[in-house]
Amino acid sequence: MNQMRFIYQKREENTNTAILLLHGSTQLPFNYQHPLTTFFSAYSADIISVELPGHGKSPFKERTSVEELLKMFFDEITQLKEKYKNVGFVGYSLGGGLALKATEAEIIPTLFVVTFGTGFKIEPEEFELIKMFFSNEFFEQLGWLERMRNVHSNWDALIESIPQWYEPGTSLLPNIDILDKRDIPILIILGENDEPFPPKKNLPLLGGKKNLESLVVNEINHFGYFEPDIWKNLSNVIEQFIARHNLLTKKK
Fold this sequence. Notes:
The protein is α/β, with parallel strands linked by helices.
């Protein structure tokens, strides 16, 4: 245990519902100012930002396989069953993939899932792009490498681990058929120009699945979901999704 941190952004009195906010690879937990935190804080639920394994101060000391990553994540969120009867997952990129895998495996009672920049298929072309995104050379070109080493105490192990998590056929990719059988509302949001998970390769896989809804956001890439103009429209979509399925109650 203690493979990742739970950071409470908001605590609600007498609630049995929590919303987990799950960040992407090499990111830090979503803080109280992030659009996701402020949006979901309007609802009666505890809001918990998760610091995923190997990120920030959360440990691992060596290269970690996707199977080890999933076990760490599952082991940690299992403890939430002691307090919460309902858990909503909201995840970006890696966080979205972990949310879907936890839902697939029925680790905790899941109320809903919303993902951004998360897909179901990785082909060699996308894998090569992911390897480029998650390399020391890429972060050095951006001028971010020193900062990454400062904010992630296990940076070398993390940057060596991430590419293998996304190899074609990886077990991090969710099983669509199993997810659909879970009878849980799931909203998959992908940018039109999302490089690792192009909608044209991923969303056709959802055809005929009654519990998996999808949305393509025009003219944005993998990193654009929370830009102010984009988020304004997305927040309306998510609000309607929540209301349509009667998932959460807004605070009075």
